[in-house]
Amino acid sequence: MRAALRIPKLAVYVAGLVPAAWTFYLGLQDQLGPEPIKTLEQELGLWSLRFLLLCLLISPLRRVAGVDLFRYRRALGLLAFYYAALHLSAYVALDHGFDWPAIGRDILKRPYVTIGMAAFVILVPLAATSNNAAIRRLGATAWARLHKLVYVAAILAAAHFLLIVKSWPAEPLLYAAATAALLAVRAFPSVLRHARRAAESVIPGRPQA
Ligand code: HEM
Prior knowledge:
Elements: E1 3-4, H1 9-28, H2 36-65, E2 67-68, H3 73-95, H4 100-109, H5 111-128, H6 132-138, H7 140-147, H8 149-164, H9 170-187, H10 189-202
Parallel strand pairs: 1-2
Helix pairs in contact: 1-2, 1-3, 2-3, 2-8, 2-9, 2-10, 3-5, 4-5, 5-8, 6-7, 8-9, 9-10
Bound molecules: protoporphyrin IX containing FE (HEM).
Protoporphyrin IX containing FE (HEM) binds at residues 38, 41-42, 45-46, 48-49, 52, 84, 87-88, 91, 107, 113, 116-117, 119-120, 123, 153, 157, 160-161, 164.
């Protein structure tokens, strides 16, 4: 038997936007530290990556633990896109003051910016087709194939984070490891089967999902 959460989807969108509202609020209160623009940009980027990974977590969570959050997948994906768009907007408006030639140079010259941009470009068609009309128009098979690009976006986003830092602090490595693990369970379904068996031995009698 599967456990399905019944929180209204709207509540997920509202809760998901709280970190952005809170960060903007702290910014307005001049409480984002000595480099407020950088902190704002970093927070928005981090939340985009978090929502992207939450999206990838939904399917293994259902298969291993029987927790069904499928109905929130679209909301989490769109939140990842909204945060990426805010992150990009902060970069364009606050970091570079709409200096388009400098932005163009930055995207071409700094590999981590190029990779971040590539991740964002991939998220655009995914967000644009995250509605029932698009699924009907494209057909379920083509839609599902297109949305597999979320894996590429996650790899690029994790690489973007890894490449920003010059040393090797724990945080980007942890996000990269989480991304790799979430992709590995898809690439190697046997990993999921082992995990499910382990979960069943921890919770004896839990019916199979
Ligand atoms: C899916 C798209 C993206 C994701 C998930 C993402 C995620 C992140 C993350 C996690 C960080 C590091 C935050 C930290 O240091 O704590 C970051 C930093 C950064 N990102 Fe992105 N990013 C994305 C797209 C972009 C794009 C499109 C650009 C610009 C074209 C960009 C420019 C930057 C810059 C400049 C920083 C460094 C900020 C700083 O430390 O000065 N990112 N991003």
